[in-house]
Specification:
With 252 residues, the protein is mainly alpha-helical. The structure holds heme C (HEC) (5 copies).
């Protein structure tokens, strides 16, 4: 600190100037650090769950489709969580003695639903809708991280307004299509991605955006040709880009 000033300077005055000037900066940095730290946003912190349900086992190794358990995800606003009956369609026959599955059996007997801790949540005054995103080809991993690698589910993104708007302002940087499966609709591609990962876990045969998704990163690109392709996809898929940042889209 002392070295910042020439010896001739009136050090008391300089110090007070410095601390005044530094104050807002310090507040700004600590403020933004607090609001961005994962302790506050919950990103990458697994929550404690009544049953240690693993997406890696079920969705990736066994290859069960997301829609088998999240039945609303392509048709409605809500993805929804599975009913106990869905688990019991298998676990009344396999791993029937597993102590880890005791809460599932108990819920089945009593009719009392399993109380999963909700990992992803936007405030009540925000409107979100799964089906429109999935039907435009936005991958689950883009918003939830590497689900196929999760043993205990954690939050993949902070879901802040600024994060939503990054994509809503430039959706062409996020949309892509699976060039190897051009006959699949954007929605079908979202689910087919997990099937492809089973034979190609690291995405070596995949395009750059899908490779990022496999790692759990966003499917974003700024490469000129790919952005040009993204602009074509906006038209093909009928995305109304001009309105996507209107407050009323997310705040009715
Ligand atoms: C066999 C059923 C099953 C399958 C298949 C499945 N899930 Fe899940 N999923 C669950 C259960 C149970 C939970 C709640 C417990 C938890 O958070 O792990 C959950 C939670 C989630 C959550 C967090 C929900 C929240 O609380 O915010 C996301 C995101 C998710 N699943 C995405 C997926 C994706 C993507 C796929 C397909 C690749 C998939 N799931 C396949 C059963 C399933
Ligand atoms: C399509 C069949 C199927 C469905 C549906 C299914 N599971 Fe499983 N589950 C399995 C299989 C197979 C294993 C063994 C996986 C392994 O160890 O590789 C397993 C393993 C488990 C285990 C680990 C058990 C242990 O003792 O290690 C838990 C916990 C579990 N499942 C919970 C659930 C829950 C909760 C649901 C409902 C949301 C569910 N499963 C739905 C097939 C299924
Ligand atoms: C554009 C981003 C985005 C995409 C794509 C997306 N989700 Fe979500 N997901 C969210 C947000 C935001 C929430 C919290 C919603 C809320 O609080 O109403 C959420 C919540 C969930 C939940 C908790 C239950 C619920 O319905 O709120 C599950 C389960 C889930 N997502 C599964 C999926 C699956 C499976 C896919 C892919 C088929 C998917 N999500 C695609 C952003 C996304
Ligand atoms: C990766 C890109 C991406 C992200 C991230 C994203 N969106 Fe979207 N969103 C889209 C696209 C693409 C559409 C489709 C617009 C269209 O077809 O006109 C859309 C449409 C919507 C719509 C319009 C639904 C309707 O019925 O008209 C709402 C609401 C919405 N998004 C809310 C959100 C919220 C809230 C978040 C953050 C939690 C979010 N989105 C994050 C890409 C994204
Ligand atoms: C793409 C979806 C989306 C659009 C468009 C959008 N918001 Fe939001 N907004 C959100 C989400 C998600 C949150 C809450 C999450 C967060 O930021 O922590 C939020 C939170 C807010 C809040 C609460 C304070 C805060 O920052 O948490 C205000 C105020 C707000 N929005 C105003 C606006 C205004 C004004 C507009 C138009 C200029 C707008 N929003 C457009 C998604 C959106």
């Amino acid at each position: 600190m002392a070295n910042l000033f020439k010896p001739s300077a009136n050090s008391a005055a300089k110090v007070s100037l410095l601390s005044l000037a530094g104050l807002p900066v310090v507040l700004f940095f600590t403020g933004s650090q607090i609001s961005r730290s994962s302790a506050n946003t919950g990103v990458e912190n697994p929550l404690s769950q009544p049953i240690p349900f693993s997406h890696q086992h079920h969705a990736y190794e066994l290859g069960i489709d997301c829609r088998y358990c999240h039945t609303g995800v392509e048709r409605t606003g809500y993805a929804g969580l599975p009913q106990t009956e869905t688990c019991m369609s298998c676990h009344s026959q396999i791993w029937t003695n597993s102590p880890l599955l005791e809460p599932v059996r108990k819920s089945y007997e009593t009719g009392e639903p399993i109380k999963w801790a909700l990992v992803n949540k936007v405030p009540e005054f925000v409107y979100f809708n799964h089906s429109i995103h999935v039907n435009r080809g936005v991958s689950c991993n883009n918003c939830h991280g590497p689900i196929q690698k999760m043993h205990i589910t954690y939050k993949g993104r902070n879901l802040h307004m600024s994060w939503c708007l990054q994509c809503h302002s430039k959706p062409e940087e996020y949309l892509y299509s699976d060039e190897k499966n051009p006959d699949l609709t954007p929605r079908q591609q979202v689910f087919n991605f997990y099937l492809k990962l089973q034979t190609d876990p690291n995405g070596q045969q995949m395009g750059p955006q899908e490779q990022q998704l496999a790692l759990g990163n966003e499917q974003r690109t700024t490469v000129k040709d790919l952005v040009a392709r993204g602009n074509e996809l906006l038209k093909q898929r009928g995305v109304k880009k001009a309105q996507l940042q209107d407050c009323a889209v997310c705040h009715h």
